[in-house]
Amino acid sequence: MQPKNDNVKVDLELIQKLRERTNCGMLDCKKALIESNGDLDKAVEYLRKKGSAVAAKRSDNATAEGLVHAYIHAGSRLGVLLELNCETDFVARTEAVKQFAHDVCMHIAAARPLYLNPEQVDPKMVEKEMDIYREQLVASGKPEKIIDQIVQGKMAKFYSEVCLLNQQFIKNDQLTIDELLKELIGKVGENIRIKRFARFEVGVN
After folding, report:
1. Fewer CB atoms inside 10 A, N or C side of the chain?
2. At what angle do helices 144-162 and 123-139 cross, to 10 degrees?
3. pLDDT for 56-103, tens place per residue?
4. CB-based contacts of 62, cutoff 8 Å, min separation 6
5. CATH label, 65-116+163-201, candidates 3.30.479.20, 3.40.50.10420, 3.40.50.2000, 1.20.1640.10
6. CATH topology of domain 12-57
7. pTM of the predicted protein model
8. Where is each Translation elongation factor EFTs/EF1B dimerisation domain found (predicted)?
9. Are the CB atoms for 157 and 146 separated by under 8 Å?
């Protein structure tokens, strides 16, 4: 990042553009643009790094408060329940957290994740998937020394399909749900966790 120019002028239109891209507050957006010398893309990166830093710093903080959000899709044949945990009831009631919960519920409805994160995937399913990939690679004549590396890459893609936190956000495929969560943590300054979710669809087991 370039050295900060304390005299840089940031107009309201640019602040608004950054706010639309990141959902961060006006003051945070203004500061990010000043830190980035008015460069919009660098300001987005600055805010994301800030969110990741806050998330790492507060990751061990207890999350005993929170909310349960319900989303029913048009036609009432599809619904999602999501539990979010955070540090205080005050943050749980903020519009930023409520909007995040709603967006994630809509994502779950569309993307159909099966698990929250890779740690929750059934070990037998993981082993089965890895065995299938290895057999395919051996059959295709891939050198033994690179098979494990390729398998790990394929498993990363597998997790991005079945694990909520690893999925690309349907409203912005430049972010995973985990990255979106870290942005929220950076915005509100508290540890927040997605504890669990349930997706219900009529006629689907």
Report:
1. C
2. 140
3. 666 677 788 999 999 999 999 999 999 999 999 999 999 999 999 999
4. 87, 191
5. 3.30.479.20
6. Helicase, Ruva Protein; domain 3 (1.10.8)
7. 0.71
8. 44-203
9. no
Q: Report the C-alpha gap between 16 and 163 in whole angstroms.
A: 33
Q: How many residues does the chain have?
A: 205
Residue 157 in tokens: 């893609």
Tokens encoding 117: 């994160």
DSSP-assigned beta bridge partners for residue 115: 163
